[in-house]
Write a structure and sequence with these properties.
Number of helices: 3
Mean pLDDT: 86
Strand content: over 45%
Protein name: Chemotaxis protein CheW
Helix content: 10-25%
Order of helices and strands: EEEEEHEEEEEEHH
Distance between the termini: 47 Å
Shape: globular
Structural class: mainly beta
Pfam family, one: CheW
Strand order of the largest sheet: 8-1-2-11-10-9
InterPro entries: CheW, CheW-like_dom_sf, CheW-lke_dom
Largest sheet: 6 strands, mixed
Oligomer: single chain
Length: 159
């Protein structure tokens, strides 16, 4: 690699992101995908649902699926507690709740700060991540919810 810093394609943009923790790792998404942040509340399990679906909850009269985001990312499932949060997001015109350990911050970053996810192996699927943001506090993995939840997957969650 030459001496130039490669970026993930957000040059010239200013990005508003919400950062949250899953276990000891920091992740973020664009704030434009987020509807609200709620405190933890138990959900109603759904029989035979995909393993990442914890259940459903009533959000002001609308039933939404609640997703164990850690499990979806291939991590150990989150054990929710009073510090946990549900990040309510809109993906492919459907509202879903994402369980996170806690919300860390709302940040404004320059697009040039988002670096591409490095190739790990040929079989490594980096489609869930937009890039990596390195800051003074560490590294933040920038997630792409629309690629993480494909349109047909979201339709199945709604069924």
């Amino acid at each position: 690699m030459t001496g130039t810093l490669r970026t993930a394609g957000f040059d010239g943009e200013t990005l508003e992101i919400i950062a949250f923790r899953l276990h000891d790792q920091e992740f973020c998404v664009k704030t434009t995908t987020i509807r609200e942040i709620r405190g933890w509340a138990p959900s109603t399990p759904i029989p035979h649902s995909p393993p990442e679906v914890i259940g459903v909850m009533n959000l002001r009269g609308t039933v939404i699926p609640i997703i164990d985001l850690a499990h979806k990312l291939g991590m150990k499932s989150t054990v929710a507690n009073e510090r946990s949060a549900i990040v309510v997001a809109e993906v492919h015109n459907m509202v879903i709740g994402l369980v996170v350990d806690r919300v860390s911050d709302i940040l404004t970053v320059q697009g040039s700060q988002v670096q591409p996810v490095p190739e790990v192996t040929a079989s490594f699927d980096k489609s869930f991540a937009e890039g990596i943001i390195a800051n003074d506090a560490g590294m933040i993995c920038f997630l792409n919810l629309s690629r993480m939840f494909k349109e047909r997957d979201v339709e199945e969650l709604a069924a």
